């Protein structure tokens, strides 16, 4: 059996020594302070090479980003051949490589993978990679490139990209020349594909007023500007928060309020991307100056409603639509989907990988996290039906054409802020709806998210799609006892997979009750067995 060249491994690994820290491949890969990541990213290069060899040389993607985290953080995620997140079973191998304490242990960890996973090292390895605008990205790319040299992978650097663009490119490269060919493997190919589909979807409809688009001073800004020429006059936008030169401004957004520095006005339509443009939320200001958020739940409701109607208008009756949410979904949205739209709804743990997997069970699976991360998946059989349908009236033919274009405008690989934007803009244009009309589908229960800094988030263990804690022992009973006192009360506690905190979600019948519930549970967690770290936040009751 072929073996790894140990001298090559040693000399490259010596350039990227491992710090004392322990690393874990979490919700969205490895993510932490950028200065700790050099060895992790070097070893992720080795992992991606092994993954490619295991899959017979298929192209694997590596994205260097920390998405919504502060500018000082960075991270890395591995993308599987069809643009999905890396297979869950490989996360423990990623963690094992990242934590090998010495070059010898790293050599052994690679060989353990090779033998247990039956990887043929003589196979080729192909890897593509990109990064967001964080200043630390360039040096981390150099570490990745060294990691790719260990097993002699062929690689292409796609430079600065949004995360979903890297997912798209990975799928294009692996499907090129097959009946499932996904598009041209470049940012330009991505713009062309989305723009062409969007133009079909809004053809002949009066244009909406310009969208005011906050890009969180992240990679979405330069990339969306790059796309504008492909859209022609089909779409009009005013981009704000587009300063990618000053890293301190990255992701300075606030929760459930307009981003810092953006003065909102009634009658306008706003959207915000996160730092790597894989999430989007919409919002507007009501006549009484209230800020109104249209989050991932609202997008899921809008998309499901529209697709159900379109399938009906197309005269296709054998395509079922289902929606996937997480525990963060507002209770009112779940009710709306189940009781008004009559669609099946599943609840899974946080992390697009879980939602994506579940959505594959439906003909058309709409999945969104409340934070705006999501997409719509069309199964191969649904696509076959849509492409085979001819329609027996002009109206049916138009609906079929729209369904086809919709499957092109929506990124099938992963949640994508650009493609979700075009999905929403399509529906609002088709219906000539303002955000306020869209918002009228249902009224959100007031909800609140609280972050609790704890000494060790790994002691928090959950079950039931993260809706219940099993550890620390007794904490869930204490939470339940508090929740019982609130009308329409619901609350859960889960450790974040991307930040060093525990998150508390609460909803209740009124805003004051919701705030009280959130802060009571937050205070409970902070105090429980002295879990909290630092000063006890003053707001906690
Ligand atoms: C990542 C995941 C999302 C998740 C989010 C927050 O998003 O891909 O699925 O909702 O982290 O996760 P947590 O609450 O565990 O910190 P992103 O946009 O940061 O990559």
TrEMBL record:
Q: Report domain Phosphoacetylglucosamine mutase AMG1 positions.
A: 295-433
Positions binding Mg(2+) in this chain are 67, 274, 276, 278
Q: Which reaction does it catalyse?
A: N-acetyl-alpha-D-glucosamine 1-phosphate = N-acetyl-D-glucosamine 6-phosphate
Q: What are the entry keywords?
A: Isomerase, Magnesium, Metal-binding, Phosphoprotein
> Could you tell me which pathway this protein works in?
Nucleotide-sugar biosynthesis; UDP-N-acetyl-alpha-D-glucosamine biosynthesis; N-acetyl-alpha-D-glucosamine 1-phosphate from alpha-D-glucosamine 6-phosphate (route I): step 2/2
Q: Could you tell me which InterPro entries the record lists for this protein?
A: A-D-PHexomutase_a/b/a-I, A-D-PHexomutase_a/b/a-I/II/III, A-D-PHexomutase_C, A-D-PHexomutase_C_sf, A-D-PHexomutase_CS, AMG1_III, PAGM
**Which cofactor(s) are needed, names only?**
Mg(2+)
By its UniProt entry, which Gene3D superfamilies does this protein fall under?
Alpha-D-Glucose-1,6-Bisphosphate, subunit A, domain 3, Alpha-D-phosphohexomutase, C-terminal domain
Cofactor comment: Binds 1 Mg(2+) ion per subunit.
GO terms for molecular function, please?
Answer: magnesium ion binding; phosphoacetylglucosamine mutase activity
Q: Which GO terms describe its biological process?
A: carbohydrate metabolic process; UDP-N-acetylglucosamine biosynthetic process
Q: Which residues form the Alpha-D-phosphohexomutase alpha/beta/alpha domain?
A: 60-92, 105-177
Please name the catalytic residues of this protein: 67
What family classification does the UniProt entry report for this protein?
Answer: Belongs to the phosphohexose mutase family.
Describe the task this protein carries out. Answer: Catalyzes the conversion of GlcNAc-6-P into GlcNAc-1-P during the synthesis of uridine diphosphate/UDP-GlcNAc, which is a biosynthetic precursor of chitin and also supplies the amino sugars for N-linked oligosaccharides of glycoproteins.
Would you tell me the protein name for this molecule? Phosphoacetylglucosamine mutase
- Organism field: Podila minutissima
